[in-house]
Each structure stands twice: as C-alpha cells, then as structure tokens.
Amino acid sequence: MANHKSAIKRIRQNEKRRIQNRHFRNRARTLVKKARTAIESGNLEEAREATARAVRDLDKLASRGIVHKRNAARRKSRLQTQFNRLEA
User: Fold this and answer.
1) Which of 7, 40, 41, 48 is the Cys-Cys partner for 2 at CB 3.0 to 4.6 Å?
2) Is residue 69 classed as helix, strand or coil in its secondary structure?
3) Rg from Cα positions in the chain
4) Residues of the chain with pLDDT > 70: what percent?
C-alpha cells in the first residue's frame, strides 16, 4: 500500500478513471455489435445508422485516449468493410 498522500490520491484517481474507461469501452463494444447485427440482418438504413453511431463512438474513445488510435481505426475499418459489402 502507498505511504505518501499523493500516491494514495493517485490510486483513487486511477481506480475512478479505470471504472469510467470500462464503461466507455463496453458501450463501444455494444454499438459495434449492434452495427454488425444490423449489417447481417440486411436492413441497409438501420445498418448505416448503427455503423455511423459506432464509428462516432470509436472516434471519441480514441481522441480521449481510452483506446489506442490504431485500435479504433482497425475496428472502424473492419466495420466499414462489412457495411460496404452489404451496400454493394
């Protein structure tokens, strides 16, 4: 356990941030999953909307540093590829 006051505060801050980040990551996973199911269902308009929502959320996560920017780019790319296949 930490002995310094600043280290104890840092532990509290890290735990609070970890919980918030976990919430945002789970939300992004859910949005990506909803987009994938919409793409698989074949509903073009619903898939377009769900994909846009997931991409927007992944961009926010990357800008905040919750996920790495390349991780977000990879997920967006895979999702967009699936959507483009549906559109074609």
Assistant:
1) 7
2) helix
3) 17
4) 100
Residue 42's domain comprises 5-87
CATH number of the domain within which 70 lies: 1.20.58.110
Helices first, then strands: H and E counts in the chain: 3, 0
Which residue type occupies 37? T
Per-residue buried b or exposed e for 7-28, using 16+ beta carbons within 10 Å of the residue's own CB: eeeeeeeeeeeeeeeeeeeeeb
Cα(35)–Cα(28) distance, integer angstroms: 11
For the segment 49-74, what is each residue's pLDDT rounded down to a tens digit?
A: 999 999 999 999 999 999 999 999 99
**Number of domains present in the structure of the chain:** 1
Amino acid at 11: I
DSSP character string of 24-52: HHHHHHHHHHHHHHHHHHT-HHHHHHHHH
